[in-house]
Amino acid sequence: MRRDEIPLTPPPSNDRPADRWMCGRRGAPCSRGPIQSRTLLGQAKCCMADSCRPKRTWHGRRKQFTLIALCGLVIAISAVAFQSTRAVVIKAGELSTPHAQILAGTLDSGRCAACHPKSGASLNDWLFGSAVSQAAADAHRGLTQTDRCLNCHHQTMDRTTATLAHNLPPVVRTELRLASLHSRDSSWKNWLPGESVDQNDIQCSACHREHRGADGQLTAMTNDQCQTCHSQRFGDFATSHPAWVDWPYRRGGAIEFDHASHAGKHFPSTIKDGAPSAFQCSDCHARGASGELTRSTSFEKACQSCHDQALQIEVGSGIDLVTLPSVTDKTAVTIGDWPDGAVGFFDGRVSPLAELMMRADADLGTAIHKVPHQDFSRLDDQRRGDVEVASTVARGHRDLLDEIARGGQSVIAKRLARNGISAATADAILRSLPPQLIEEAHSRWFLEKRNSNTAENLRAGSPAKLAKFTMKPSDDDLLGDDLLGGDDLLGADPLSHDPLATPIDSAPQKPTTSRFDADTMLPAGGWYRDDLTYSIRYRAAGHADPVIRATIELAAELAPGDPARQRLIENKAAAACLQCHPGALSQSNSAVESVFNAAAWRSSPLIGRTSLGQGEGFTKFSHGPHLNIAGLVDCQHCHQIESPTSSVDTGTAPVHEFKPMGIETCAGCHHAEAAGDACVKCHRYHIDLR
Fold first, then answer.
1. Which intervals of the chain are annotated as region Disordered (predicted)?
2. 20, 200, 429, 678 - which has most CB atoms within 10 Å?
3. For residue 44, what are the β-bridge partners?
């Protein structure tokens, strides 16, 4: 093809389309176009000899419209900005009902500033920044919207952990993540990109979206929102939720109760109204005012009829405050004042409470530790070291009673405090202990013998003092002696006989008093003195005795390896309580579980807790809506009691008494087409470690 035969593209009608002007002759565009210079009236000059009236191009008209619209918008915004009602005109949307109710009485200008830190500034502050506004800005520098949220929600959330994921420190989150690795299967979703959120700086607005109206739910969250942070991705509840294993069991509890033995053995063997007693879950787990099941019922309602008599016998032995040990004659000589009834051979154990009080003296504490198992019967009177140790510890008992007799309860409290015992625990033990009881015991056991020894010394030849006699008015009767009746005038004269001429028995007369019967004399419990065993003891009144309870709490405050702690919890009265209340001594070193709860006596509900330290944490559940379903009214539909068989290998009972629940138990109803399977139905986000 020749060059002149090649078709050429026709030139454009307007070779300058970005110009603002075009030729106005016949309304057609001009290839030359007007020049860019304009007159004062905005008319462009035409470069042709026969000039035309230029018109704006589409680009020019669009630019002109944009400029006019922009100016109008600036004017409108400026007009609104200077109005007092700008907070009503410019807002993201209506507040949710809880926040709207709180801010109902607040001025429109202050409603935004209550949550948004920068909304309180005026237009002048934004544009010009006065000195006052600059000072206010410096004072609130670094203040976030989350800080404003915590101004109201600080009672339910700790400020130091509010922006942490699940309000948990990184070390706790790491512990939980590692603990859950074995319970999850690998999934292709784990190959997706990881989380893009800083889990140590999560603002409230990341999950709680406001300005969605009165019907908006601030706590509503989707599963996709949860997966934004979770490194282990998951699908629906039925197919991807980790296995529960022992949930909801093994969550701990303040009261120990064997469901298997009661349901299979004790209740069937108890005849009531001619028939075996029925084991009904609702007898102990009744529905409360909120519709939720109670964790347990009272001792008087559920346990007293069967266990009260045995419990009275167990706790009736009580606990010793101080018990004098028995020593040999050789040791008694080195002690000094010591009751004759506690002399003969080594016997008796140092009571745990007396050991704690005497351990406040370092030397005395060392001597106590030299007594094997704090048992005097293990000492040998043929060994000089044992005699010295026995003498030191025995004198410690005597001096302790003497100090308490003079100083009262404060002496005991101070000595216990040196062993780390809190004042509240010590006060609970001492509240019913009268100091006069200690003073009387000290006087009877030690001072009477001292006075008896003094009398013997007088009889042996020591100068005796003349007796003093007091004449009563009733004795001064002149007619008391009838001289005519043959009475001797000096028959009633106290000075007619020489008291020193009367024979004196070589052995002093011991008081013949019977032993104090605490079971008969103290049915309601209390402190008493036992002169047969030379002890100050407490007799418990039965269930929930305050002194025995305080003694167990005292033991819980001691170190686990302390021998006094072990002997306290082995006491019959304390052991009877701990059979059903093992939580009173529970301790844990886990960062997730609670660290020692000395007041774990009542069975508090697990439902509704938000704290990992209280046993539930992430999981929440309510029996109320489930009990409205006919098939779930029977508790054993979900909670089936395991057969109380023993293990062949170890001979021990199963780790718990219920069969484990499977996910399929809940997945039958909890799916997207029925009750729903959202994460927040069963899991909390905010966790409190306090």
1. 499-518
2. 429
3. 38
Same domain for 353 and 447? Answer: yes
pTM (predicted TM-score):
0.65
Least confident of 424-438, 647-661, 666-680: 647-661
- Provide the domain limits for residue 224: 159-233
> Which has the minimum average pLDDT: 73-82, 171-180, 202-211, 597-606?
597-606
Find out whether 149 and 115 touch, Cβ atoms under 8 Å.
Answer: yes
DSSP-based three-state secondary structure for 489? coil
Residues 351 and 447 in one domain: yes
Question: At 530, is the secondary structure helix, strand, or coil?
Answer: strand
481 in any annotated domain: no
Give 71-118 pLDDT, tens digit per residue.
999 998 887 767 666 666 677 788 888 888 888 877 666 778 788 876
Q: Which residues contact 608 (CB under 8 A, 6 or more apart)?
A: 292, 620
Nearest to 508 by CA among 447, 459, 464: 459
Q: Which residue shows structure tokens 């302790």?
A: 400
Q: Look-up: residue for tokens 């084991």?
A: 279
Say which DSSP state 242 is in: P
> Residue 687, SS3?
coil
The answer on pLDDT for 538 being more than 60 is yes
Q: Tell me the three state secondary structure of residue 271.
A: strand
| CA 290/CA 283 separation, integer angstroms | 18
Helices 563-570 and 546-557: angle between axes, nearest 10 degrees: 150
Domain membership flag for residue 641: yes
Domains in the chain, number: 5
Residues 400 and 357 sit within 8 Å (Cβ to Cβ) = yes
For residue 75, being part of any structural domain is answered with: yes
Same domain? 123 vs 184? no
What's the pLDDT tens digit per position in 120-163? 555 565 555 555 555 555 555 667 889 989 988 888 888 899 99
Which of 119, 143, 167 delimits the end of a domain? 143
Examine residue 45 and state whether it is found in any structural domain, yes or no.
Answer: yes
